[in-house]
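[[Per-residue structure]]
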Amino acid sequence: MARGFARVDNPGNLISSQGVTGMAKALSDGRPIPFGAYCFKLEFTPLAVVACSVAHPDDNRYGPFGPILYTAGPNISGILTTDDNGSPVECPAGFQDAAVIGRVPSGVGLGIAYGGFYVLFE
């Protein structure tokens, strides 16, 4: 059973959660990334993090259902991935309990599905 969860909408807003004390957009070159990389502050240290896209009628508008979401586990520090320009992506201080990285199919870069995503923290 999950100890916590979060629901994030397409603009990247945390709209419901349990066990989550905060969410921040990941940073690239010290600036928040608009879409596709999210960092979480939790009430506990998770052992596992699982995320999935939320289905939306416009999912296939510009290509296959996506993005494919990748997750990172507890105590996130250092570089998570790179952004569309190849710059390193990191979580801001205080939001390093877990992270979700969305990667759009076909190598377009970071992104988020039209319906947003759910993430479970165990």
